[in-house]
Specification:
By secondary structure, this protein is mainly alpha-helical. Helices cover 54% and strands 0% of the residues. The chain folds into 2 domains: 71 residues, Alpha Horseshoe (Serine Threonine Protein Phosphatase 5, Tetratricopeptide repeat), CATH 1.25.40.20; 61 residues, no CATH class. The longest helix has 17 residues. It starts with 11 loop residues before the first helix and ends in a 6-residue tail after the last helix. It comes from Symbiodinium microadriaticum (Dinoflagellate).
Length: 148
């Protein structure tokens, strides 16, 4: 019952992740919610939390082994969805992912670099701060993980 979905395929876990309610997300996972269940758009709860910039929810889902490589129907990962939200929370969210060991592929680095470049070209206010926070991250942290 905890994974019952609405007409859009969203579960209670999707709703809690969307709203950034980390306590509710934790309770739903403990109750057996499937963290990788996709909605009609192919978004797992990690995608929706990332898109909204909810760092604590993202960290919790990653700690619960959420699939960072899972792609939605548009082919976007949670990390790429977070790039759509270039506001004050973006740098913190990306930094959080890097701290827990996430590494970006060459394609992701290129995509984020283009987005940051676009923001810098049109920047004002919090977008400029976010772009500068991203730019200050050490590039070695953004390098793809070495293949074993």
């Amino acid at each position: 019952m905890v994974d019952k979905a609405n007409d859009c395929g969203d579960t209670a876990l999707h709703a809690a992740a969307w709203q950034g309610h980390v306590d509710a997300v934790e309770q739903l996972v403990v109750a057996g919610a499937i963290i990788s269940k996709a909605n009609a758009d192919g978004d797992a709860p990690l995608h929706v939390a990332a898109q909204r910039g909810h760092v604590k929810v993202v960290h919790f889902l990653i700690d619960q082994q959420a699939d960072l490589a899972k792609r939605n129907v548009e082919g976007a990962t949670a990390l790429e969805k977070s790039g759509l939200l270039l506001d004050g929370s973006f740098g913190a969210w990306l930094g959080g992912l890097l701290r827990v060991g996430c590494r970006l592929s060459d394609r992701q680095v290129s995509s984020l670099a283009r987005r940051v470049s676009n923001v810098l070209a049109e920047a004002s206010g919090s977008s400029m701060q976010s772009a500068l926070a991203f730019a200050s991250l050490p590039m070695r942290a953004l390098a793809p993980a070495a293949s074993d």
